[in-house]
Design brief:
761 residues, alpha/beta, Heat Shock Protein 90, 4 domains, five-stranded mixed sheet, rod-shaped
Length: 761
């Protein structure tokens, strides 16, 4: 039997059906004793009133049946209440209760059919009232279940209406009609009451659920509070552990910094200790090459030279990799003649290829510009490394170096360099790791050819530093092709094959003899450099420590001081400070070139900051020494070669337009006094920001005229301003003003010269 339940529109979140059935059964059970007792006494009273009008035997039988029915209801209810909660079946109790209510209604209806036709008129009114009262009490008792309510009132009221209809006079028909109307009202009322009762039960369940949820929430809150307190304790401990870890990490960082500094110091010391004797070996071999030697001696000299060069390449690769890893590698972007560089790079490899009977070719695109802006030294190093590898791994066949120009609409022009060979080739699985440090294609490569496995890794680093890309194509047995692309700035005015004027060859020699003082505690380097300079016609005085150098400078006048930075008694930095301090009083300037075996940029910059005009890194070659002397010495009046060189550089920067040169020169000469006053005022008031900004602005103006020495001095002044080192800034500015005056004098003459030439034409 299905129980009537509230609609979903009225009751939301209804409890489970079993819970509702158990609640209905409990409610019926609680009312069972009262309702059974009340209706049984009503039955006895009714029989008492009607026993004179009806058959006595029928009345007794009816009362016995009704008593048995009420007894069964009472027994079933008591049994349900005593049954264990887990074993109860509320649905069975509700079904039994509905059948019992229906049986009770049928018995009352039967009594009505028996008594109504035979009782007097006034007794009929009593029976109608009794039927109405019983129906109303049934609604109150059974409303929790519609089945029980309808099972009782419908037989009772139906029999009453039927009894009236069977005796069809006006009064009976009226009573029958009223009974039917009353039945309809009861049905509607019962449905509403049933809905309300079930809603109340459901609400009670929801309230119980709400209370239970609130209790559960409270318990959860308590548990959460406990967990939160535990979490606070854990986090507090974690904070303590974190602070301890941070302290440990800070200590580890400090130790790592100290270790890195110690590594740099070790690298500097090792570099100095290795490069200094290696410098002597290479210079001695250069001197021996000028002598007449036997065939065997020449062979051994070539072996020694090759070994020294290889050792220097290994040292340079290791040092370059160290500088790249530590972020100290810096690019030096300049404008130079690309074809001249390529010829310079390929020349020594042509001789090697001829000796080994390998074809060597240099293929240049017809659209290739002559003037490009790149890091000349790094480009040379990349090409040298790739060509050397190509020849090294090519036993027979050819090596080709090709360069082309790639131009796009939305990107900068790019130069594509390619080095191809017909050598052994590289297996595909080894190609992806070939540009990693200390990796070579074959483990036997080191045994056969030597090397550290750093060459290609350094090439990759240099290419990427110049915003380029490097790659390779290779097939075992068919050779390899290494290529790289570099973005560059092109100078259209100088891209038609004109001779380069921005780059001076390292073989350029000075057109005058110099008086040079050498201060170096290494006897081998001192003797070899002295002999090298004397062979070129220079007058040389050599001393072994800083104190002797200062004594010589006090007694005589020199054009150049080659100053070793690591010397006993008084080191190079102390000599620099003493010389520059002395010059502030006599308004003079000695060209000082620091000679050092230190390879880190910060150490080389320290030489410039300390007051050096330029620096040489050991080992010192003849070519590099002449180049540094040529670049560093100031312009000398009545020296035609230097004047022409300086004028050519200015003309290049002005695109051979004398009006531009004159305009730029006038602007600089007009603005410099104001900038100088700003720098002097900033030094006087220790205004570091104004100092470095003014120095930076002045360095940008000087860059137009390609004055390397002045740019380096201004860079030192700018750095001192940034660091707040007013004392160093003052020393740099005192020495710089003298050079600036000499520069402006040469600038005025160089700017006027094109106009004179123009007039002559």
């Amino acid at each position: 039997m299905m129980l009537s339940r509230p609609s979903s529109d009225t009751i939301n979140d209804s409890p489970p059906p079993h819970a509702m059935e158990e609640a209905i059964a409990d409610l019926l059970g609680r009312q069972s004793l009262i309702s059974v007792s009340g209706i049984w006494f009503t039955a006895v009273f009714a029989i008492y009133l009607l026993h004179e009008s009806i058959d006595s035997l029928a009345a007794i039988i009816w009362l016995v049946l009704y008593s048995l029915l009420m007894g069964a209801r009472l027994w079933w209810g008591i049994r349900y209440q005593k049954t264990e909660h887990e074993r109860r079946n509320p649905r069975e109790w509700i079904i039994f209760y509905a059948w019992a209510a229906g049986a009770s209604g049928v018995l009352w209806g039967t009594l009505t059919l028996l008594a109504y036709p035979v009782v007097p008129q006034e007794a009929r009114a009593l029976m109608v009232m009794l039927a109405a009262g019983l129906s109303a009490s049934a609604v109150a008792s059974y409303t929790v279940t519609l089945a029980a309510t309808f099972a009782f009132i419908l037989p009772l009221l139906g029999c009453l209406a039927l009894a009236c209809i069977l005796d069809p006079d006006r009064l009976n028909l009226t009573i029958a009609l009223m009974t039917l109307l009353y039945s309809g009202v009861l049905i509607i009322t019962v449905r509403h009451l049933n809905r309300s009762v079930l809603e109340a039960i459901a609400l009670q369940f929801r309230n119980l659920d709400l209370v239970k949820n609130l209790e559960q929430s409270y318990q959860n809150q308590e548990l959460l509070n406990q967990k939160l307190n535990a979490e606070i304790d854990v986090r507090s401990q974690a904070q303590i552990d974190l602070e301890a870890s941070l302290h440990t990490l800070k200590q580890a960082k400090n130790q790592a910094v100290e270790a890195n500094q110690a590594k740099d110091r070790l690298l500097a010391v090792v570099s100095h200790e290795i490069r200094t004797p290696l410098n002597g070996i290479i210079l001695a071999l250069e001197h021996l090459r000028r002598e007449t030697l036997t065939e065997d001696a020449g062979k051994y000299l070539s072996i020694a030279t090759s070994s020294g060069t290889s050792l220097m390449e290994i040292i340079n690769n290791v040092l370059d990799h160290t500088k790249i890893s530590s972020g100290q590698m810096q690019l030096e972007i300049t404008t130079f003649d690309l074809e001249e560089l390529l010829v310079e790079v390929c020349r020594p490899f042509i001789d090697q290829s001829e000796e080994r009977q390998i074809s060597f070719s240099l293929d240049l695109s017809t659209q290739l510009p002559r003037q490009v802006r790149l890091d000349r030294l790094r480009l040379k190093q990349i090409l040298t490394n790739l060509i050397d590898n190509a020849l090294k791994f090519t036993a027979a066949g050819s090596v080709c170096v090709s360069v082309s120009l790639q131009q796009a609409v939305h990107t900068a022009p790019q130069l594509e360099f390619s080095v191809s060979d017909t050598g052994t080739g590289i297996p595909f699985e080894q190609q992806k790791n070939l540009f990693q440090p200390f990796v070579q294609a074959d483990i036997s490569t080191t045994r056969r050819f030597g090397g550290t496995g750093l060459g290609l890794a350094i090439c990759k680093e240099f290419v990427e530093m110049m915003q380029g890309r490097i790659g390779l194509e290779s097939q075992p047995g068919y050779g390899s092709r290494f290529y790289f692309n570099l973005p560059t700035e092109l100078d259209a005015a100088n891209s038609t094959g004109s001779q380069a004027v921005s780059h001076q060859s390292g073989a350029q020699k000075l057109k005058r003899n110099l008086k040079i003082l050498i201060a170096d505690d290494d006897e081998v380097s001192r003797i070899l450099i002295t002999d090298l300079l004397k062979r070129q016609g220079h007058r040389v005085v050599a001393v072994s420590d800083g104190r002797q150098a200062l004594e010589q400078l006090a007694q005589d006048v020199f054009d150049v001081l080659l100053l070793d930075m690591e010397m006993p008694v008084i080191d190079g930095r102390q000599v620099l400070h003493a010389v520059r301090a002395r010059e502030t009083h006599n308004n003079a300037h000695l060209t000082i070139i620091a000679v050092t075996a230190q390879v880190l940029y910060e150490q080389q910059d320290a030489c410039i900051i300390a007051g050096a005009d330029n620096f040489l890194v050991k080992p010192v070659s003849t070519e590099r020494l002449n180049q540094v002397l040529y670049e560093t010495l100031p312009t000398i009046e009545n020296n035609d070669a230097l004047a022409v060189s300086k004028r050519s550089a200015l003309q290049k920067r002005s695109m051979d337009d004398p009006e531009i040169l004159q305009t730029m020169s006038e602007i600089f000469l007009r603005n410099y006094p104001q900038t100088a006053r700003v720098i002097s005022a900033a030094l006087a008031t220790t205004d570091n920001e104004s100092l470095w900004r003014a120095a930076h602005k002045l360095r940008g103006s000087i860059a137009f005229f390609e004055e390397l020495t002045l740019q380096q001095q201004l860079q030192a002044l700018e750095r001192a301003g940034r660091d707040g080192d007013i004392a160093s800034a003052q020393r740099s500015w005192d020495g710089l003003q003298v050079d600036m005056q000499a520069f402006m004098t040469s600038l005025t003459k160089a700017a006027e010269q094109p106009e004179g030439n123009k007039d002559d034409e």
